[in-house]
Amino acid sequence: MAVDEALLESTAKKNSPPALRLYDWEPYTLSLGYAQAVRDVNINALNRFQWGLVRRPTGGKAILHADELTYSVTAPDDNEIMSGSVVESYQRLSIALLQSLEKIGISADSKPKDEKLLTSQTSSICFQHPSDYEITYNNKKLIGSAQARKKGGVLQHGAVPLFGNITRIIDVLMYPDDQEKESALSRLLDRATTIENILNKNISWNDMSAAMQYGFEKALQITFVQADLTEFEIIRSKEIYEEKYSNEKWTNRI
Predict the structure, then answer these.
(1) Cβ(70)–Cβ(25) under 8 Å?
(2) Cβ distance 225 to 197 under 8 Å?
(3) For the chain, counts of helices (H) and of strands (E)
(4) Angle at CA of residue 34, ends 32 and 38, nearest 5°
(5) Of 64, 126, 170, 188, which one is the catalytic site residue?
(6) 185: Cβ–Cβ under 8 A, 6 or more apart, which residues?
(7) Of 207, 224, 220, 25, which Cα lies nearest the Cα of 106?
(8) CB within 8 A of 203, min separation 6: which ones?
(9) H or E segment to which residue 86 belongs
(10) For the whole model, what pTM was predicted?
(11) CATH topology assigned to domain 2-249
């Protein structure tokens, strides 16, 4: 999260070109949305599993980062891909995500959100409800994304679940009783899926990474140049980590 924010600052200042960053998580980590209450989390269960906890700089609800590819896109807010409204930039990037999935054999969808479905349920889980132009397959959410705009820049990041049990997140969230917990588990199975569930085979992180690069280049008509973090980005990410992401006051602020 700190590196994503450092890239946001660097690209917003145009000290670095817009960036696509691809990564995964060790250990598995539950991330809360920027404005989500920490009381949604079952801290005892999280500690029992030895999973991490972080608060994202972007909005939305909880995501368990496990067996996935995480992507982030950072750019100045006047960049032609990221300019305009949040929904407009979401739609452009959704085309790149769809092309990435096509590369591995998945024909997915990207549509405006269903307001009736969105308001019919309340949930602390990101993957139970698709937002505008998030990626679905057979009406199940496949790629969840969120966006933040500040300091003249735009950060969008999201999770691509590759394989594994998507209901594991249920075990580290709080529910008033077992019945509501079971109901949440059932809804999640009905409304979310993984790459493995769709293809009936495991796609490796490296293969998905290559597909993402292909999809973004094809859809956005750009060419990537692989690069390490700059000295500023390394220093700034360490500062942000100390200020926020290793600080319980930040994580527990709501």
Answers:
(1) yes
(2) no
(3) 9, 9
(4) 45
(5) 126
(6) 167, 170
(7) 207
(8) 104, 162, 163, 195, 196
(9) helix 86-103
(10) 0.90
(11) BirA Bifunctional Protein; domain 2 (3.30.930)
3-class SS shares of the chain: helix, strand, coil, % to 5: 45, 20, 35
Residue 146 tokens read as: 């969120």
pLDDT in tens, 87-110: 899 999 999 999 999 999 999 998
Q: What is the pLDDT of residue 125?
A: 56
The parts of the chain modelled with pLDDT lower than 70 are 113-132
* Phi then psi dihedrals of residue 209, to 5 deg: -60, -45
Residue with tokens 């690209």: 11
Q: Take residue 174 and report the two structure tokens written for it.
A: 């709080």
Give the residue among 209, 219, 170 at the shortest CA–CA distance from 192: 170
Which CA distances in Å does 174 have to 59, 184, 206, 248?
Answer: 19, 11, 34, 19
The H-or-E segment that residue 186 falls in is helix 178-191
Q: What is the DSSP letter of 243?
A: I
Structure tokens belonging to residue 247 = 């600080």
* pLDDT confidence of residue 120: 45
126 catalytically annotated: yes
